[in-house]
Amino acid sequence: MPLLNRASVVQNCYVVNDLREACKRYNEVYGVGPFFVFDHIPLVKNWYRGSEAPLDISAAFVQSGDLNIEFIQQHNDGPSCYRDMFKPGEEGFHHTAIFCEDYDAEKKAFEAAGFPIANEFQTSETTFLCYTDTRKALGHMIELYQDHPGVRGMYAMIREAAETWDGKDIFKNLG
């Protein structure tokens, strides 16, 4: 039986050196927009391979059909799941993301299958996400989202904005 049993991939993510330039390049090729930018995301907590570690990242999100696309730029030099794959100055495809009905059970299932948790974030008092290091099987990581109304709401807002986008302002700020 598959580990994820037909999970729907909701996002592809790329690590980039310059968030806004990456968005512009993607827009020039795919014509999608607008990109919702969240500069220096405030994390309640960040655990890298089980230990708390400082992390300063910014992200941009855009919808392309049924798939959300994310770009992440890491600003600090500390260890992270992003630096596990890309040194400063490098960029490329990093992970796919899925929503989990039972976040804790999914995390444990990945760990039991030999895929350790590379990073786990707490983004609010009640919202968690993590990256499972599935590189040995897939060549990339899988992000597990706790199925939270706030995250679902963000995805819905980005999808709706893409469907009604007039092609003019490429960037919108999330924070």
Structure overview:
With 175 residues, the protein is an alpha+beta fold. The chain has helices spanning 19-30, 81-85, 103-112, 135-138, 149-164; strands at 11-15, 35-38, 45-48, 51-52, 57-64, 67-74, 92-100, 117-122, 128-132, 141-146, 171-173.
Q: What structural keywords apply?
A:
11 strands, eleven-stranded mixed β-sheet, 175 residues, alpha+beta, 5 helices
Summed up, what is this model?
The chain is an alpha+beta fold and 175 residues long.
Describe the protein's topology.
Layout: E1 11-15, H1 19-30, E2 35-38, E3 45-48, E4 51-52, E5 57-64, E6 67-74, H2 81-85, E7 92-100, H3 103-112, E8 117-122, E9 128-132, H4 135-138, E10 141-146, H5 149-164, E11 171-173
Parallel strand pairs: 1-6, 2-11, 7-10
Antiparallel strand pairs: 1-7, 2-5, 3-4, 3-8, 5-6, 8-9, 9-10
Calculate the mean pLDDT score and round it: 93
Number of helices: 5
The low-pLDDT segments are none
Helix content: 25-40%
Q: What is the global morphology?
A: globular
The end-to-end span amounts to: 41 Å
State the total count of DSSP E strands. 11
- Secondary-structure element string: EHEEEEEHEHEEHEHE
Q: Which class of secondary structure composition applies to the elements? A: alpha+beta
Strand line-up across the major sheet: 4-3-8-9-10-7-1-6-5-2-11
- What about the largest sheet? 11 strands, mixed
Strand content: 25-35%
Radius of gyration: 16 Å
